[in-house]
Amino acid sequence: MASTMRKVSLRNLAAHKVRLLLTVLSVVLGTSFIAGALVFTATMSNSFNSIFDQVAVGVDAQISPKTTSTNAYGGIESLGVPDSVVQQIEQDKGRLGVAKIVPGYQSMMTIAGSDGKALPTGGAPTMGANWVSKSQALDPTGATILPGGRAPHGPHEALLNKSAAERGHLKVGSTTRVLVSAGDAKPFRVKIVGLVDMAGDTSGYTEMDFDTATAKKLFTDGSHVSMVQLGAVKGVSADTLKQRITKEFPGYKVQTGAEVRQENKDAINSFLQIFNYILLAFAAIGLIVGTFIIYNTFSMIVAQRVRELALLRAIGAARGQVLRSVMLEAVVVGFIGSVIGLAVGTGLAAGLQALLSSTGTGLPSGSLVVGAGPIIACIVVGVVVTTVSALAPARRASRVAPVEAMRESQTDGSGSLRVRTMIASVLAVLSVAALAIGASGKGGGAAGMVGLGAVGTILAVVCGAPALARPVVGVLGAVIAKPFGKLGQLARTNAVRNPRRTAATAFALTLGLMLVAIIGTLGASFKSTIDSAVNEQVRAPILVVGTGATGALPPTVSKAVANVDGVDSVVSIHGVTATLNGKGVTGDSPSGDITKAANINLVEGTSKLPPNGLLASDKYAKNHGWKVGDNVTFNGRFGQDATVKVVGIYKSSALLDPWQMGTAAFQKLTPPSLRADFVDLVLLKDGADQAAVQQRIEDVTGRYLTVKVQTKQEFANSNAQQINQMLVVLYGMLGLALVIAVLGIINTLALSVVERKREIGMLRAVGMLRKQVRRTIYLESVLISIFGALLGMVLGVIIGWCLVRTFREWITGITPVVPWGTVLFTLVAAAVCGVLAALWPGIRAARTKPLEAIADM
């Protein structure tokens, strides 16, 4: 009997190919993203590891600063290792066991291509360094100058890596402009005297090498070296040399070459792991949506097979055998979907890798890595999800009594919803309470409470959506379907007749659009906050900002802008990094009168900032117990300590938090080689033509490569554009859930057509035309789609609104903004998707032959 039941299950799958295809497809979409995420990150990790395997080869010990910090622009601040350390190692080479010393000088920089614009890197670094010849290098098999080139000599000659030269259309003999990111460096021209083939030469990586004397002058303060690489004498191991150097120079980071390579690998793998988590999160969303579709599909399949399963019971099949029969179908579907999902996911990873490489993102290329992880994950997740989704329908199938074989009626899922509705009501009350508590607070704890409320809301929708389906779809039907007369009434009746099925079909769309609404609300709120802050707080009509890798402006830019005709003054905002009470802190330091360029809402004290004074926001002052007249000592990380006097406290704002420091104190804390501007606020002379002055500033700053001149509105729009770019990526990935949702509607409607075959046949027999049948299915799909979209958008906006409220801890002045445009567009799009989803089921229903349909039952 067991063998017979297996044959029945397999033949049943083979006999319903369309149903099998639709069910398998929902599994494929979920598992393919899991496979794609795992394969892509494994491929990237392997590619980066192969590059870093070539780093620090031949190095037995490397000395670098023990502590560095990230400045306000994202750049790494470090003065390096003092020359005195290098000199002492040179003097004690014999005692320490050092055979060769290779000083390294490097820094971030910007390089222009043949078109005069900065070379695009796609996020990969652009580095300047000193060229080390083979005779001097610890690894003689490392970077090499390609034929036709030579080593650089003097301050205006340099080498460039091959891929960067190709990207910038540069060659040996080309002359181009370069700019060092920090310090008082000015743009200057260099001649490329050679191209270099080096490890790590990815699609976006750029490196320009100078002779050692030039590199030291450009990239350090003249008394430090970025790092020191050492080679040990024969008989002294790398670990031994490391121990000796560490003992001799305890204030520095000392690593073996192997440790340097591993550190680089760990850093990139950590980044890739975060990226992997993001991809897997969206894959999980797809799986959740797919789970409900699979559950809905199996529920309908079981409902359609009541007589078939009852007949099996009547001829002797036990409940367990019927249960195992349905579960076997689920396992087969899950396995097939997982295998196909693995193949599709591998293709997605290959496509993503090719796309990122072709667009110059800075990521390396390499062969795909399909290990055991993606294979096991796909099969296990796909089979488990499908099996669990089918468990409840399978149990219902096993409980079908043999007497059901004598009846023609089938369950339509319209039974009592009392228990589900009661559970949903309790969950809804608890969720509303959690959302309200979270929205009334701020910070991580409040955000966590909102998240808890969101989860509870989703569960409440799962349980309560069937009860909502009848009244909501009924109202929608009265409005949308009414113009279609009897066809609209029939579509409305079909949509509310089985509320469980309608709710399950709509839930996939509800979940996807709820996430869209949450993200849309966050994005609209962030953009509104930026726009309001710039318009209300910035008084300067023109802003000069940096666009390079670090976002910093060399100090020489403000001097050049100040000399432009029509400019009254320039207030430069410097980024300050320091230590306060043992913790790293960041703030700003304006050069000039900040009140001329920005509106400061003073709470107490004065807004006039002396050289060794401090203006603090009320929130920051309260947190640190500061009052006007207090002296505060900031500890410099690379310079001297600075004691400042709190002269004024102003109301917290999005642009002026957390404090403003006087120029003299800033200069004590920040060495000249690490000083840079965050933004230059330009004030105009009375009567000056703003457009003409802006054009003159653009002409003067064009040679700096990384400078952008903007009006206040352009500055606000550029920041909003960055948010839009992030939203596009998120919306694109959420498209997976929406695609699955639309497929779920197609799936449900197609199965519904099969379930109502006799009904449709009778309608055709009494005179309903094919186009009328199609129109009825279209209207039913539109009603279900709008119901799901409306529910998702309402819940998403509420959750997003509450979540934005919790961000007041981190973003001053942020207020929730409802993205009405997104809401309206989504509802219209949902209606369109409903029509598209119903095309095939509608055509299939219209082709139903009346006599065959009636005889079939």
From TrEMBL:
Task: Write down the superkingdom of origin.
Answer: Bacteria
A GO cellular component annotation in the UniProt record: plasma membrane
Gene Ontology MF terms in the entry:
transmembrane transporter activity
Query: Per UniProt, what is the membrane topology?
Result: Multi-pass membrane protein
Cite the MacB-like periplasmic core domain residue spans from the record.
Answer: 21-247, 502-699
Where is it localised?
Cell membrane
What Pfam family does this protein match (any one)? Answer: MacB_PCD
Note whether Oxidoreductase occurs among the keywords.
no
Q: Which residues cross the membrane?
A: 20-40, 274-295, 330-356, 368-392, 417-438, 502-526, 728-754, 777-800, 820-840
- Give the UniProt keywords, A-Z: Cell membrane, Membrane, Transmembrane, Transmembrane helix
The keyword Ribonucleoprotein appears for this protein = no
Q: Which residues form the ABC3 transporter permease C-terminal domain?
A: 281-401, 733-850
Report the main location listed first in the record: membrane
* Similarity comment: family membership: Belongs to the ABC-4 integral membrane protein family.
PANTHER family, alphabetically? ABC TRANSPORTER PERMEASE YTRF, MEMBRANE COMPONENT OF TRANSPORTER-RELATED
The protein here is known as Putative ABC transport system permease protein
